[in-house]
Structures are given as structure tokens and as C-alpha cells.
Amino acid sequence: MMLWWLIACGGAEPSDPTRSEGLPVPAVARVSEVGGAAPSPPAETVAAHVDLHVDTPTQMVRRNVGLDDPALESGLDDMRAGGTNVVVEVLWPPREPATPAAWAAQVERLFAKVEAEDKRLDSVAIARTPTEARAILAAHQTAMLVSIEGAHGIEAGGVASLAGLHARGLSLIGLTWTFSNHFAGSSGDAPAGASAGTGLTADGRALVAAANALGVVIDVSHASDATTMEACALSSAPVIASHSDADGVHAHARNLSDDAIRCIAQKGGVIGLNFHATFVGQPANVAKVADHADYLKKLGGAGVVALGSDYDGLITTPAGLTDAGDLPSLWDELRRRGWSESDVRGAQGENFMRAWQAVIDRATH
């Protein structure tokens, strides 16, 4: 893994960490060096409160309900109560039936549902750029971004299909889900004797290049360590992990290694705190989620911390974070731990807005 660190991040091997509050603090993790605290938004700008990953489209389709249904964990009422005003609505094609045609059909079904809610509700609108998202917030609406969780969802059309989806409103794509696909290796099935897992395939490298060219954000949550480090090395723009926690706080294959955290940070990307208790660790509560936030901040700087709850994804939620309405309790816990208001604003969403703008700025068409 240290070889990947040198290739992907271009720096010397990090020094042995010291200990502070039980968490490693590498010498390379100074805020000013890796994206730092989020800049304060202009006074006339509505601060972005972003959730980078909700599975609400799947629940809306399964239950035949709308985004305003009160039973959703990330429905409109709860988002308003908790302050979320930018939400990444995820198109998730499950593994079964395991055919590219079935995956593509599910992506289409979910995309159509998000588009239908965009038309039905005056209080929401799909955003394709940070500028559009800011305008939506200024109009007192909720901005919806669209993402695909797992590139197997585009296998039927291949890399070429990304352009059409982007034109339709796709802003992010996850390289993998819980199984390796045609494009990349997953953390869910690393082969025996190779804990880092398999990495990008030739088509996966082409997908990274195509996403960079279009201005589509590359998401490495669920990816193997090898995939994550390769994507970090190859991408010309920031990459994100939309809903991942830190392996250094709770060891789990889905959580990010220290090297992956550093690389995402130094690339200018962000990591969204995941609320699934299995990844958070015990006791699964607000304080434990804040432990992950502290760890990410210590390794990657305040600018790497974001939120990716995984609400409506059939997760076991931490105590005190049952739905989107409970999010203020996390921000209050970070303030209690000494986080500045600028750092909290960054984690709430401004860090992602900065990374997203960088992806857009570096797109070539």
C-alpha cells in the first residue's frame, strides 16, 4: 500500500504518527496543506448543507410514495427540520437479477422517479452544477443531485453512455457497490491473500477519464483499497467517498484506510460520514460518529470532512441520528469538541461544494 501512496499522492512516505486523544496524527495532515477549513460563503449566499448519499429513490419506488412522504428517513420534512438543503439522490441497481439489462432498467426506473419529483414538487429542483445548486437554495428550494451507486449500472451502455446520463442530470458516479464489476474492484469481495482487492480495469480507467472530461464526480465508497488509490492517482480532479467511515476508528472492509483518507484529502476530495451502525462501530451513537469526523480531520484536514448518511438505505441508524431531522445533534457534538464554525460549515456541505466546483472547473467538455 505504501507504493500506492507514493504513486497516488506524490509525496514522501508519511512519518510515524503520534497520538492525541487516542487517534493518530500524521505529520502530513496540516489543514493548510490539504484543502483546509471550508471558506466562509459570501454573506448573500445560503450555506449548503449537503447529504452526499441517500437511498430515498429506492424507497420511493418500492413504496410508491413521493419525497414528501413522512415515513422516509430523508423526506422533505425531516430534511427541512435538520437543515439539509442539498441532497444526493442515489440510483442503486441491486446485484440481482445480475444482468446489465436489469441494472440499466433499475437505473432508469429510479432516475425517472427523481425527475418526476422534480416536476411534481415546487420545493425541489435537480442541480447539475454548484452554480445551479446555489440558485436553487437562493430560491428557498432543496437542490437534488443525482448519482449512480455502482458503475455496473452503466455496463449495458458502457462508458459512452455516461455522456447521455450526464446531460440528463447525473452529477456523480460510484465506481463499485458491494461486488467487483466490469470497471473496478470492490471492498466487498477482495480476493484471498490480497486485502487491498483488485483495482481498476482498462474500462474503469476509461470511465475515470470520461467522468473527468464531463465534470462528473468520481465516488470511491464501496471500492477496494486498490481501486481507491488507483482512482486517486489517475483522476485529474478531486475524488470523493460519498458514504464511508474510517478504518482507524472501527475496522471494517467498507471503511477507509489511512492511506486512502490522506489521498482523497490531498486530491481535494471529501469523505461523507456514513451512519450505518455496522460501519460506525459500538456504541453506535452521535459521539461515535463524531469520533470518525475527528479522525478524518486529523488525518486529512478539516476540508476532507463531509456527510453521507445512507438514510433510507435500510441501515441501522446510530442512537440520536434516526433521520435527517436529527442532524443538528452531530454538528452540536462537533462544536462541543472544539470544532470552529468554519470547520462545521465545511462538514455540513461547503467542503463538498468546493470539491464539486473543482471537478466542474477541470472538465474539458
How would you describe the overall organization of this protein?
The chain has helices at residues 2-9, 56-63, 76-82, 100-120, 130-138, 161-168, 202-214, 225-234, 258-266, 277-280, 286-300, 328-336, 341-361; strands at residues 18-20, 23-25, 50-54, 86-91, 124-126, 142-148, 170-174, 217-219, 239-240, 271-273, 305-307. With 365 residues, the protein is α/β, with parallel strands linked by helices. It has a single domain (46-361), classed as Alpha-Beta Barrel (TIM Barrel), CATH 3.20.20.140. The strands form 3 sheets. Strands 3, 4, 5, 6, 7, 8 and 9 form a 7-stranded parallel β-sheet that branches. Helix 8 (225-234) links the parallel strand 8 and strand 9 (239-240). The protein is globular, with a radius of gyration of 19 Å. The model is unreliable at 1-35 (pLDDT under 50).
Properties at a glance:
alpha/beta; 365 residues; TIM Barrel; 39% helix; globular; 11 strands
Quick take:
This protein has 365 residues and is of the alpha/beta class. The chain is built from 13 helices and eleven strands. Helix 1 runs parallel beside helix 8 (225-234) and helix 2 packs across helix 4 (100-120).
